[in-house]
Amino acid sequence: MVPTQYYLILSAILFGLGAVAFVVKRNIITLFMSIELMLNAVNLAFVAFSQARGKLDGQVFVLFVIVVAAAEAAVGLGIIILTARNRRSLNVERVDLLKL
Amino acid sequence: MNPALIVFFVLAALSVIGALSLILQKHPIHSALSLIVVMVSLAGLYLSMGAEFVAAVQIIVYGGAIMVLFVFVIMLLNAGEEEHTDFSKLAKFGGLPLALALTGLLAAAMIHHAGSVPNPANPDALASTSSISMMLFSTFVYPFELTSFLILIAIMGALVLAQREKT
Fold first, then answer.
1. pLDDT by residue (tens digit) across A54-93?
2. Do B31 and A48 touch (CB under 8 A)?
3. Of chain A residues 71-100, which have a CB less than 8 A from chain B?
4. Same structural domain for residues B1 and B75?
5. Which of residues 9-38 of A touch B (CB under 8 A)?
6. What is the pTM of this model?
7. Domain range enclosing B47
């Protein structure tokens, strides 16, 4: 049996890598993928705690997170298609209308 | 060494390598494929934790539907290689320690709270899938119904966003 701490450390590492990818990457689609990576890391923590406590609430929450992620992917990719159509570029640094 | 530990370390290494590859790859399609590796290895971890329903949903919804949507959009927009941008000096030397600090802080906070969680008597007693469905349709029935509204709104939002403007 694997200790819960190992899963939590892995979850923190994956979340940190997702956060780094969100800041480092310049392609808007890759930014979106790093958000999905962070959601996955949180799901791992949910399932690990669910297993540690012996209750299933965490796994039900993971299902809700997956539903929200699917809805977010649909809307977000629609926005990405719109942005790419208007700006003719996928680089987030080109999307700077609100920048001072 | 415990076989469960070996399985954990193989899958954990696979997922961390996939996440690193997501950052290091220049082309978005390569990043998408490495994200699929992360998701499938996480599904394996869920399976090893006895959460077989979550593992199946992870592969079907994440690895299947969402990632296919991503690959579809990458192909549709004909996304090329990422343009190289220069990092500022501050980001170069301050970024990595701050990222490590974030990871360490998260791990420390979660492990601190995991220590106060009492371990269950027998974790194998969780009859997973049928119990999840019972909870989903009794305790969590209102959130479950709300997700159907959420999906409906997401469908409408995606349609409105993706259609061409009428001229």
1. 888 889 999 999 999 999 999 998 888 888 888 888 888 7
2. no
3. 71-75, 77-82, 84, 90-91, 93
4. yes
5. 9-21, 23-27, 29-30, 32-34, 36-37
6. 0.89
7. 1-80
